[in-house]
Amino acid sequence: METTGYATLSRQSGLMREMRLVANNIANAATTGYRQEGLVFSEFIRAAPGQPSLSMAGARIRNTSMQQGALARTGGAFDLAIEGDGFFMIETAAGTRLTRAGSFSQNAQGDLVTMSGDRVLDAGGAPVFVPPGAAGLNIAADGTISTEGRAIGQIGLFQPSDPADLVREDGVMFRTGATEPAPRARILQGFLEGSNVNAVDQLSRMVEIQRAYELGQSFLETEDQRMRDAVRTLMR
Q1: Which of 35, 177, 186, 224 is the most interior residue, by most CB within 10 Å?
Q2: Domain boundaries, the chain
Q3: How far is the C-alpha of 70 from the C-alpha of 83, rounded, in Å?
């Protein structure tokens, strides 16, 4: 295959990856705490004396949007939304993870947990405990939990020390390296943050990707036919 074919195939491969991401974004447009994801394209250029130049596309760097999602009032005592930069820290079987999805509940032991049963951690990295049957439960903007006017704990708000370390591991869960407190973030009790996906923009992008892929496919088919014709001509 000539270099033009390899260059086009690398572009087609990147477009397929982006199409999968866009489709996943659209599928999660209504998922609480979901962050829209995109793909960064890069170019690899080879230019050596006496050799034909080669330019190939690369699309392996994922980019997660941290734009604030819409806040919806639920009135739930354990429904929590984050306003500003920051994440809740969750204890999972694979280690601690960060998330913006704040639809929590209380398990039988009194721990604050996610819908999957993973425990929410406090500012010191310990599980958040709320006494079963606690009356007058209030969660302040800084995460302080109080019942009948008495503070009993504080939900932690964290952010990655290096935003580039943030790696999506699940729909709403992220893995990262070192973390630090998120002083500018605040918690809103009785609210949930929706997905930050712009469905209209994502549908438009899907159409653009489809057209770009079809154009590349047409080029590959034309190039293939040209090479077949050339071989047949040489064999006569």
Answers
A1: 35
A2: 3-66+197-235, 71-193
A3: 10
